[in-house]
Structures are given as C-alpha cells and as structure tokens.
Amino acid sequence: MQKLLVFQSLWAMERRQPDGMEWPLEEKIRMIAEAGFDGASVDFGDPAFARRATGLLRQHGLAWQIEAFVSTVEALAPVLETARELGGTHINLLPVVRPYTLDACVPYIEGWRALAAEAGIALNIETHRNEMTTDLIFTLHLLDRFPDLRLEADLSHFLVGREFWYPVSDENHALIHRILDHAWGLQGRIGSREQIQIQIGFPQHRHWVELFLTWWEYGMRSWRRRAGPDDSLTFLCELGPREYAITGPDGYELSDRWQEAQTLKTMVRDLWARIEAEDRGAKEAP
C-alpha cells in the first residue's frame, strides 16, 4: 500500500531569535516525534552529526531523508558512504553548481546518478534558487535531456523566481505540472510571487496556501500513478528560519513556525487521505 511520510526539516528547527536560545538536538527530535511526524531530514555533510541525529531518530522510531549539498561529482561519494552505513529513505541532492549551458550540466547529472545507482540509493535533485535548478525553464530543459530525472520539488523557488501573476495562468500551471510529473519527493514551503516564505495562518495569504495545496494534490496524484504499490512519498515540512522567515523591528518572527509546521503536516495528511479515499472509491465503483 502506498504511503505518505511527512518529515520535518532539522534546519527548520533552528530559531535564530534575538534571545539566542536554541533547542538542543535531542529536544528537537523529541519535539518532532511527539508532534507525530514520520521523520526528519538530516544533512549528511558532517558524518559525526549524521550519526548522532539518525541515532536519536532511530531511538524514537522515526525515519529520515538525507540532505546533500554538493558542487562536484566526487563530493557525493562520502555522502553515499555514510548513507550506506546509516540508511535513509533517499538522498535529496542540492546541486550547488551553476553551469551556464545545458551541456555543461550533463557530466554532473550523469556522474551523480551513476554513483547513486552503484550504491543502490535513490537520488532526487532538488529544485532550488542559486543552484543548477534555479530557473524553471532551464530545469524543464534538463528534463528534456533526462526524461527519467527524479526531482525533489520545492515549488516556492519557481513561484518567486518566475513571479507568476495570480491567478496563475493555465500555461504556468502546465509548466509546474511538468515538474511535479517528475517529482519523487515534495518540499513543504508556501510562498507568494514576491516572498519565498509566507505565514500560512494569515488570512491575507489564504489564496497562496490554496494554490500550493492544489499543486501538491496534482503532485501526489501524479506520484501515485508512477510509483510502485508499496512505495512511500516523502513530504518535507521546511519552513526556514530568518531570512526565510519574516521578522518585525524587534527581530522576532511574525508567526510561530513550529506551530505552522504542525499545521502544514495536518493539511497534507488530510489531502493525502482525501485522494486515497477517492482512488479507493473509484476502484470499488461498478
């Protein structure tokens, strides 16, 4: 049976508030477990930190996905070595390299995919600003070159980068749908056409929340058609600290991100449950 795994980003658990108080790692993971998340994302750039974080997650019966910031093909090798040791649902690779042409991207994509395939570990490429996938159209050209490329879709970057008018046109919806048709993981951040991360509980932002729920619904339905019967889709709640989070003149954020992450978790689980029920009803219909 296909499943949805809702993770919380450990990076998103950073407070960065004027009082200087930060939760210890043990407290962060305890909070994630008690809030009912299925797991967390862990940066494997520091193997010692990865061992500590995954050990705590394992103690709480939680899963994790692997975050990898790499700028060369060779830089993925030590991440894969740690991944073989510690496990994880998949690697989410952030391609911290900015080739000027599509042809210049090919050796990176081919190299990363070959190393991951040899290690037997699933690899997704994240859509993110200031990286290889910074631009929507350029990323679509990557999909033309690599039709089976697995993406980790953070759509907030494309919305801000292309500054779509609202309501979003059918043409722009179609471009986002192409991304989602290659998404094997979804990233949970809600933005507007001008701001990468908005407060999801503010009433003036409701239309942006509804837009992202519409996109995530499309992505979930697309994934369910493509994935195996027992596969799991990861949805990572990643509401980041400042400068992602907007702050007031006192330096404090305008909303409670931790509460928003839990609200987002409930939203996407409710969305998944509705899709699952509709699919089940369609199969049972005479």
Low-confidence stretches: none
Proportion of helical residues: 40-55%
Mean pLDDT: 97
Count of DSSP H/I helices: 9
Structural class: alpha/beta
How far the N terminus sits from the C terminus, by CA atoms, comes to: 22 Å
Shape: globular
Within CATH, the superfamily carries the name Divalent-metal-dependent TIM barrel enzymes
Q: What is the total tally of β strands?
A: 8
CATH topology: the name is: TIM Barrel
Radius of gyration: 19 Å
Query: What is the helix/strand order?
Result: EHEHEHEHEHEHHEHEH
Largest beta-sheet characterization = 8 strands, parallel, barrel
CATH architecture heading: Alpha-Beta Barrel
- β content, as a range? 15-25%
What is the strand arrangement across the widest sheet? 1-2-3-4-5-6-7-8
Helix-strand layout with pairing:
Layout: E1 3-9, H1 25-34, E2 39-43, H2 47-59, E3 63-70, H3 76-86, E4 91-95, H4 102-119, E5 123-126, H5 136-145, E6 151-153, H6 155-162, H7 170-180, E7 183-188, H8 206-226, E8 232-237, H9 257-284
Parallel strand pairs: 1-2, 1-8, 2-3, 3-4, 4-5, 5-6, 6-7, 7-8
Helix pairs in contact: 3-4, 5-7, 7-8, 8-9
Task: Give a description of the structure.
The protein is of the alpha/beta class and 286 residues long. The chain has one domain: Alpha-Beta Barrel (TIM Barrel), CATH 3.20.20.150. 45% of the residues lie in helices and 15% in strands. The chain is built from nine helices and eight strands. The chain has an eight-stranded parallel beta barrel with strand order 1-2-3-4-5-6-7-8, surrounded by six helices. Helix 4 (102-119) links the parallel strand 4 (91-95) and strand 5. Helix 3 (76-86) runs parallel beside helix 4 and helix 7 (170-180) packs across helix 8. The two termini are 22 Å apart. The model has no long low-confidence stretch (mean pLDDT 97). One of its GO terms (molecular function) is isomerase activity. InterPro entries: Xyl_isomerase-like_sf (IPR036237). It comes from Hypericibacter adhaerens.
